[in-house]
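Entry:
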Amino acid sequence: MRNKNRKVRFSPLAILISAVLLASGGALKTDAAVLLSDGMDYASTTAFRNSWLSEYGNGNRATETFYGPSPLAGLNDTPASGTFASLGNRVLYRQLAADTVGNWSLSAKLLISNYQRNLGVFLLNETGTQGYGMVWDSNIVNQLGGNGRYQIRKFDNLGHTSWASFGLGVTLGSQMNGGHPITGYPVTVAPNSDANAATYDTASWADFVSLRLEWSAADGVLSLYENEVLMGQRTDINFTSFRRIYLRGNDWGFVDDIQLTGSFGESYAVWAASYPTLIGEEADDDDNDGLSNLEEFAFGGNPTNASDVGYAPTTRVSGDFFEVVHVRRTAANNLLYYLEQDEDLVAGPEWIRSGGYEVSGEGPFPADPAFEVVTNRISLVNKSQEFTRLGVGLRSDPFSYPLFNTNTFGATVPFITLEGEEGSSNGSMVQLGTPFPWPSTPAQEASGRAFIELANTGEYVEFNVPADANTFLIRHCIPDAPGGGGITNTLSLYVNGVEQQDVTLSSKFNWLYVTNGIVGGNGQSNTPNGFPHVFWDETRLFLSSDVEAGDVIRLQKDAGDTAAYYRIDLVELEMVGPPLSQPPNSLSVATYGANGSSAGNDTAAIEACIADAKAQGKIVWFPAGDYLQNAYFELDGVKVQGAGMWYTTLYETVGDASINWHANAGFKFFGSGSSVSDMSFDSLVNTFRSPRAPKPFTGLASNWSIERVWITHTGTGIWIVGPNGVIRDCRIRFTYADGINVNDGGLTFGDTSDVLIENNHVRGTGDDGIAILDHESSPDRLLRMTIRHNTIVGDWSGASIDLTGGMDHLIHNNLLMDGAGFVVNLPPAYPMESLTNTLFSYNQILRCGNKTGADVGSERGSIWIFPGSSDLQNLRIENNVLNHSLYQGIHIFKTEIQEVTFKNNRIYNSGREAVFISGQARGTGTFDGNISTNSGAQPFRNNAAAGDYTVIDQGNNVWN
């Protein structure tokens, strides 16, 4: 164990700005001005397409057309000659030169016929994920009095190609009655799009309408005008940075005269132009002062004067925190500041943006109004030494910086995890040895790949309490019963040397064994046979008395604790607030007879409450309590809420006993709008995986959500199909199959698209932590899955994140530890659709890799690329950190064609190769700016036959 008494040392290595000097190059801002004006005066469709890019990537752009002259010549203010554009069921965009700041006004002319679906113009951020827009819609003739409808739309986290199927955010407030009557039918057009002589049927056309959307930065008010008449206002203050204009329309979506007025924020390009003698670009150092030109921009330096290096960062110790204070350009929205940390510089720098700090203060910088001051706080608790440095980056690549918070990996959680091996103990510390054992061992499946064992009376492990807490969780392993089925025993809990309470532990749910003679497989037998796995279960409880920061909490094997051993993987402490109150417009299951005391079956009462809530349009409320279930509950657009995941628990009592269970426990979603939040789900009887093992969340639905739910002891935690879903802030612990599985159902239902999986903490799953499945047998597709800021720990089979087909997925800022890692898995045994246009970026993968199969097993890298049934196109693996991989860092395998870009990845301390390309691999790998250090074997090895797999080396790779 680490020596806890060494002096904490920090080094603000940062950018090494050496002095605080006044920058001579001041902030440059423009007054309100025309930022973009496009009258659609193009000479041809080709010229039009060169100016407006398609969100469809390489899709067919045949229907996206430029027209001239206008078919509405002479109507109102439409000129007798002129041009306009047809959007043709497409989404187009233009990037601005820099981010806007402050107020802006966006206007356009849109053609109003009786069949315009979501015809609109939008202003979003640099990557098209957040912003606002205005929409005209008239797809029903008599809609809103025959005048169509106007809408102000908000866009949030749609992903980098989310618009391909025209998912258009949410309407802010109610829809507004349009002032333009709509009559007739859609126009018929048969033009030569590049010719002026075109024939149009204009008999049923109305006129172009002028729409304008204004944004007030001060109060977030959005004002929509039609022909300069105010139609309505909405308020939303979430976003402040805008850089990309989008157009969207159906087959006859016609648009003209796009204009944006406002102000640009500071950009590197504008700043650099103020220095006429500046020659180099961002990465260059024109004045040879040790700072790049970009760093001079970030900290107020003069890139042409070596004595003017701007405002230096400062550091200080404040209580239990180390603080790094630096300036930040207020208006430079495309500039990122971040901290990186490393525990040991002697063994080779392993700088990681670990999220091990928080921004604790922001405010004006008195010396220069172009800047503000930012304070970053790093906890010193339980740290023997740590080094930190400050970095900056420019948001220039739409697949890079702008999408992500580069400072944080994994989920933000309210609990504190204390690893057993990091505590103080007189017991035995057991670590994963080398060569790595197979079949599995308790250390193999432990968090941190290590644990403490207490085998003798008086042995203990204790921890300093870092923050106040009233709850306690222990991840533990005690022996199985000789014939299987588990035992129950106690372990003593002390606070500050005084015994506080006994903790009752069980091994009923863990300890599985080989089935069908497959050693090392995912055996699910409860009968001991000499080849065990699944060693860890978790127990949570409220403490009998709260603990405070600075207390010492101890787990000790006393004389009354009679299990042969107690293995402690980790403990977690949390301060849990009071139960939630019943929400308005809700019906309580208690009113219908559910007692919540584990005294009897509550199924009928809950079903009755759900039926009435559906009929009355109300929420189903579960007060604090323990409820028993022996049939799953169908939710057709019904919302369910509990008193909190520590207070409301639903227990299933069927397990694998009934074929009528059909693996549906808990809740099955239908229709649109179903949701469950703030409760726990557990099983009293399920002890292994089978086709009928309970799944607490299933269904085929749309607009669904699962939030703040704790799941344990089930088959798959969440198995769901359908678009526009959210899985957020959940804790999934010890499932016998996947933690979260979003899929196409293997049948015809409709595409599963635009699902957000974020801020979940998943640990100890018996298959994939998070899985995305797009079956080849289904005509439906998986589109635009976003998986971000999740933590996945200790999956004992499958993958931490398993990506199996689909397109336009975005996976970023996740933390994967002590499991299989990231897998792209298109296996021949279960054919999947191809995977296209997917980004895996800014993830941290720590101590990952695994074996599968027979005694020796198949060794897999922390990132394992396996196209065995379908190809991979435009998969980008960028800006990830891989540390202490058990085997290879990046492992490229299998026979189908793959096109993958590996860029700016950091691979440290891999057990074998940093990058290994197997002899079966086919396709192309582009490698750019990757770095490996301390590889256990040849760092880059390509075993593929010549011509089968092409390595494109873009340079800047360092393989060590």
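The longest helix spans residues 603-616.
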